[in-house]
Design a protein that fits this description.
Length: about 325
Amino acid sequence: MREVIDLAPAISRGLATEPLLADAGAAVAGTLGAEAATLAHGFAGAVLLAAMAVRPGGRPIAFLAAHDIEIAGPLRALLPLAGAVPRAVGSVDRTSRDDVEAALTAETAAALWVADDRLAAASLLGLPDFRHTAHRRGIPTLVLAPGSAAVEALLDAGADLVVLDAVTTFAGPPLGIVAGRADLVAGATAARASGPGRLSLPAPDHLATLVAALAADDDERAALLQERRSQLAVHLAGYPGLSLQPSATGITVELDPETAGCTARDLAWALAGGRPALPTDDRDSAAGRLTLDLARLDARQFATVRDTLARTLAQPIPPAPWP
């Protein structure tokens, strides 16, 4: 069981100091399997820190027009507080890849995506296309996941930063979470120390509640992961060219393309584009590896992941649109 971080001294003073915030962020990062994480007061505070982390300096942050969600006001009204110019791409009912290609320029500070199934019909492209277009231009991708704990698997799908709501992710206190690349999380942490970022300083009793809950869950989480790895091993036995290895938050699928008949990138694309979509961490796909998060799923969601993976592997998998 992870040691519970003692936040009592800070609580007695009513202050959340940076060392305590760093310890709480490390605990959250460990649970999420992220490089790093930091915390803010509320989801809107975390969105503000994530936007400030890319140091926009008057440059645009681009997002789909349909993704201008309400976060204590419209997203387009929050981004200027971070020093960014909001740039809506496409229209509220239709956005194509050409729209995104034209909007993401060398001046763009970040590309922002809102992970919400209710918004999917407004776009002719998905997050993999959006992220790939941004990364080809060296533009970081920010993913906001306000409503569903399952969406935090997007962190493993290659987003540079993911903004989560602790209420929906952990049934926890009203905290926002910024998780992902260590350098960008460091930028979010620095942003909290000055200007509008100071408004996002979380309450220390909320930090204590969240960290204690994460620590108490460690033993159960380890047992759950082992059980689900065993289930997948049985369910996927016999597929040629496929082997399974444990990972920090789930399992890594290793593929031999000559035997399996597809590459890891092909499989990742097929899973991401399926119904239901199954995001994976495909950052090692060039080496034939995909990682699936199994820790943050309830029993029904895990069964869906298991069955979707088996069903996808049982069919011919077409090549991905890019290597």
